[in-house]
Design a protein that fits this description.
It is a single chain. The protein is mostly helical. It has six helices and no strands.
Length: 91
């Protein structure tokens, strides 16, 4: 939840209110949430069980060759940088 709210630039308490059904996001916020998760607005507003079934049967997007080629250098950086940055964890 923290990662999603950070990436969507929505405060975590506000995002939790949306998840609990306590509040409904504004139209532009709902669009951003739908784009983030790759669903349509009408789909996310379905009852929970219907939405769950819909998402379970939807095929997962396939990774393109370009994505794999670009992601390998990033993965190498992440692996090499993790040890260098470990001393800063928690600060």
């Amino acid at each position: 939840i923290a990662e999603v709210s950070r990436r969507l630039e929505i405060s975590r308490p506000q995002f939790n209110r949306y998840l609990s059904g306590q509040y409904r996001p504004a139209a532009h916020t709902l669009r951003r949430i739908c784009e983030f998760f790759g669903v349509e607005e009408h789909e996310i507003l379905l009852p929970n069980r219907q939405f769950q079934r819909l998402v379970q049967v939807r095929p997962k997007p396939r990774e393109s060759h370009a994505t794999r080629v670009e992601s390998e250098p990033l993965a190498q950086l992440r692996r090499s940088g993790a040890s260098e940055l470990s001393r800063y964890v928690g600060h």
